Amino acid sequence: MSDTQAANGPRILGRAVNLNKLLVEGRALVALAIIIIVFSSLSSNFLQPDNLILMTRHVAMNAILAIGMLMVILNGGIDLSVGSTVGLSGVMAGYLLQGSNVPFSDMVAYPSVWVVILVSLAVGALVGWVNGLLVAKLNVAPFIATLGMLYVARGIALLITNGETFTKLRGEASLGNKGFIPVLAGTPLGIPMPVWLMVVFAIVFSLVLNRTAFGRWLYATGGNERAAELSGVPVWRVKILIYVISGICAGTVGLLLAADLPAATPRGGEFYELNAIAAVVIGGAALSGGRGTIRGTLIGAFVIGFLVDGLVLVGVSVFWQQVIKGAVIILAVAVDQIQQKLQKRRDLKRVAAPNPPADPASTADDSALAGAR
Hints:
1% strand; single chain; mainly alpha; two-stranded antiparallel ribbon
């Protein structure tokens, strides 16, 4: 192969890879554009600033949850417990703000708002840590481990509240505990706090995936776990950490949801795991692992959020909303599978293609050199 061909080979391959990435994320952008065009034509209120802020607020919560789900799916796993973790974390915050009895005494403690937030996030991290141990150490299938934890977390939330809802989330000002609603339900610079947190999570985890060794390990274990393990990647540590991250994301959403209502209900976060998975898949991630981006996941979250809010705005029945959302998810997965098959065929054709004929000038030069020797 001549130097010119060697130089052109990687460039052509690079173009193919970039085109594939563009197609993966491009379909989500096209879907989002279609949703905006359709609903803005059906309702004049769809693109109103107040409605856009409200929709983006809803999208932000799903996006934060979807970022954690993306980390798990990149590893080839799944986390069905995030919806229950949302409810449990919110309930824990409500329980502490109501005033909790100090063990072995008659005292009632009213912790500060930052203690409440940290404890609620720690609860989410603990649920994720248990999921990670089950998957990484005991080799329990992620679907089974997180499905079981879905029921465990929801059951604990119901036990804490006795099936009721905590409504006194503003704390006790006389005790220096003003609750977390002013912190998490505020609108700094006119933008809701969930949106700010979505941006922060997106930037942080985008850097983690693209600029750190952990990000490379995560993509490697998702692509080929055995090969990654033989290369020295700490596979079980990566697995545990991604579930902890997913739990922390769920804990954050639990706090945001409780502040938004404002109430802490054990039923909070029901079916949120499905929206998070849908956002990741629509955003171009492969459920088999090894492929996906934060950017694509955010686009997928906007597709789901704008679709649901648009259907509500134009008065579509709740039952039809479920049908349409399910159809969109199935379509996204089907398109992804078709695209993967087409890509495999192109790769096979590229490998099976005969080598191009040698450059005549280069052949003549080689013959002349051989004669000289």
